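Collaborator request log, item 7. Partner lab (contact: R.S.) asked for a structural prediction of Haloacid dehalogenase-like hydrolase domain-containing protein 3 to inform their binding assays.
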Amino acid sequence: AMVRVRLLTWDVKDTLLRLRRPVGQSYAAAALQRGLRVRPEALGSAFREAYGAQSQRFPNYGRGQGLSSRQWWLDVVRQTFVLAGAEDGAALRELAEQLYRDYCGPHTWQELPGASDTLRRCRQRGFRMGVVSNFDGRLENILCRCNLRHHFDFVLTSEAAGVAKPDRGIFEEALRLGGVRPEQAAHVGDDYSRDYRAARAVGMHSFLLRTAGQGPQPEVPPEHVLPTLSHLLALVEK
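Returned to partner:
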């Protein structure tokens, strides 16, 4: 039999919370309120490009290079608009500040089906609970405002840890915070390499949330796959 799992760690984006609408749509709507017309599709692809370039140049929000995550994001937002054809200037700086704030709010995020209910039931069963997320310092605030923070003993972001998933260091820090050995912990996330494989590499158990329509995926034993979050308790207590 499996050593009893005592700690559950959770990814957040696309595991517990997801964006209510695509980035391009949110950015276009915010711009339009300031009289700036930019196509959502153009912003969507510009965002992917700007985010990708910034991540290459300053990994993990520039944490090791003296950049604040706030400045990191403000640069990504401005660059997104510039790539989509907007004129850089004071208006874009204000827009970037506004969007940085908007992405903290419950109007930007929605819960995945079964999220609060599953977290509540896991708490009731006595599991220790923690978040392990490649996110910046806003995550604590987002979880509070989406009414999920109270389920967790700790919230560990890549910005705070100084390393990002799939680096084993962030999982080791989570195990330290949870006060358990790897085989007493299980991680839940939606990304095969950053969540499922990375947690297993440290010796943790791991479950992969696989919502419909994700396309072809690497092979994972069916008993490690969650079609929805509500499937978790039955599998973790096997």
